[in-house]
Design brief:
mainly beta
């Protein structure tokens, strides 16, 4: 079965001047095209090739030997390259940029700025990305109280605080009382773990331990 948004090894079933067609050994459906410019030299029918499957600008399923910056089920930091009437397009390392729909945005995104997103398949069977990460982040981080961590702010609530994806994978929060400076979605932060909750979520502080902070302030 050819899987959209994933890398997989497929078999060459036909060779044409404009490229080769690939399919899974067990699949009976339509084969997918790998354009000629990406076909390895001396490729022949029966060979196996590892490719990534996505849809081109005309919404046709197509293969590429290039590796994108994000794949289905992954979380990655991508840059906004264009904001349009249907959403924002982000650079994910392939010829066709990927769409971040308006309904999947948690703030007004800005061209040239990067944001943390996850990839999903929408109702029209197209690959898109979303800024909604809460349900995708892990709760079993290796960190303990007073550990230093790095992360990216993926959501913000004035009453609660800044939500952070530590290492782009673990759920964390900088409570509102710990926000002594302006912070925005997409910002990279270095913080200290102040608490590991029973469910595994991390509480963070942008301040160092009190005795160190006092020395620096003085």
């Amino acid at each position: 079965m050819i899987k959209l948004g994933e890398k997989q090894v497929l078999n060459v079933v036909r060779c044409k001047d404009f490229g080769i067609y690939l399919n899974d050994k067990l699949a009976d459906g339509e084969a997918v095209l790998l354009p000629r410019k990406q076909v390895p030299a001396d490729t022949k029918v029966g060979d196996e090739i590892e490719v990534f499957i996505y849809k081109d600008s005309e919404d046709r399923v197509i293969a590429t030997t290039n590796t994108p910056l994000i794949m289905l089920g992954e979380i990655a930091e991508l840059e906004v390259v264009n904001v349009t009437s249907i959403g924002a397009f982000m650079n994910w390392g392939l010829e066709k940029d990927i769409l971040l729909p308006f309904k999947e945005q948690l703030c007004k995104v800005v061209e040239g700025k990067s944001y943390l997103v996850r990839m999903y398949i929408d109702k029209s069977d197209r690959l898109c990305v979303s800024m909604k990460l809460t349900e995708e982040l892990e709760l079993d981080s290796p960190y303990n109280k007073d550990d230093d961590v790095k992360g990216i702010v993926y959501d913000y609530n004035e009453d609660i605080g800044a939500f952070v994806a530590v290492d782009n994978r673990y759920s964390a929060l900088i409570p509102h009382k710990e926000l002594y400076k302006k912070i925005f979605i997409g910002d990279k932060v270095e913080a200290r773990v102040t608490n590991v909750k029973e469910d595994g979520k991390l509480d963070l502080s942008l301040r160092k331990p009190a005795y160190i902070q006092m020395d620096e302030d003085s």
